[in-house]
Amino acid sequence: MKNKVYLAGLGNFGKKIGEYLEKMGKNVCVLPKDLAAQTEALKDPEVEALFVVTPNDRHYELLDKALKGGRHHIFVEKPITSSWGDALQLRDLAKANRNILMVGHNQRREAVFRKAKEILDSGRIGKVVSAYFNYSHGAAFNISPDNWRAQIKRHREGPLITLGSHSIDTLHYLLGPVKLVTAFIQNLTGKIEAPDANAVTMLMENGATVFLQADYNIPSEKICLIHGTEGVIGINRDKIHLRIGRDVDRKPSEYEEIPVAHVDTIEEELEEFFAAIEGRATVETGFSEAFNVMAVIDSCFHSDRHRPLLSVADESPGYFS
């Protein structure tokens, strides 16, 4: 059985993936940066898979080359590309691809979101009315200007495409497709060139509304609230609480913590990837799931650029002063 894999990208997450692969007994080789050497390396018949863990805007060229070559199973970290247009360019290649293509949208695998899905499917909180996601941290205060995340040319949606792509995929997993979006993409601190804040309102196809935030300018946050007609799911990092029932004598029902077991989501998805190669599993997050995330992000970008804005002062009596 082949156990040689090529790893493209040696940043913090690339090194982390490399460590996991080595623990799995894989012979990890670093893909050369030189294009000629890279092409030759990808011809190696002993290579089982290619792992793309480079900055987002480097994904497309590697995926395009590997998919056209048709020789390798591919794991690419999310988001699949840095733009929906690039993902669209890969669509036909991905459809024709007979090898495994997996995208690392691993947040949905966290125990709290698996439990939330179970509760939603059971109908315990009734019809979903609204949801709130906030996945943020203070990267704008810590990264240098030469970091790709700080540059608007390489990171036009800022944290929406890095942190927010996790939330959007998880949202698809929990509540289904997005129908409409309105988005604000801003730079509020001036600490980096790229945006550092996003606020997105979504109307889901099932009628629920969602408010999503992904920021690089606040103390770290990871919250999800899902409101239904019969109850509320509350997630804060690795804890999940459930509240069932409406107010009784003006007193709200109590939250109950639901115990969940920790899951190593990276280990789980890599095991699934290699099991799929051997024909023992199918990948949960492939091209279509990743493409749908990019479609939402692209819609957010165009909403921010082209949405009609109604001024409070012009369209109504305005603020009282």
Topology of this structure?
Elements: E1 4-8, H1 12-23, E2 27-30, H2 35-41, E3 47-52, H3 59-69, E4 73-76, H4 84-96, E5 101-103, H5 111-122, E6 128-136, H6 159-175, E7 178-186, E8 197-204, E9 209-213, E10 221-228, E11 231-236, E12 239-244, E13 256-258, H7 265-277, H8 287-306, H9 312-315
Parallel strand pairs: 1-2, 1-3, 3-4, 4-5, 6-9
Antiparallel strand pairs: 6-10, 7-8, 8-9, 10-11, 11-12, 12-13
Helix pairs in contact: 3-4, 4-8, 6-8
Question: What does this protein structure show overall?
Answer:
- This protein is an alpha/beta fold.
- It has helices spanning 12-23, 35-41, 59-69, 84-96, 111-122, 159-175, 265-277, 287-306, 312-315; strands at 4-8, 27-30, 47-52, 73-76, 101-103, 128-136, 178-186, 197-204, 209-213, 221-228, 231-236, 239-244, 256-258.
- The strands form 2 sheets. An 8-stranded mixed sheet has the order 7-8-9-6-10-11-12-13. A 5-stranded parallel sheet has the order 2-1-3-4-5, with helices on both faces.
- Helix 3 packs parallel to helix 4, helix 4 runs antiparallel to helix 8 and helix 6 (159-175) crosses helix 8.
- The chain is globular, with a radius of gyration of 21 Å.
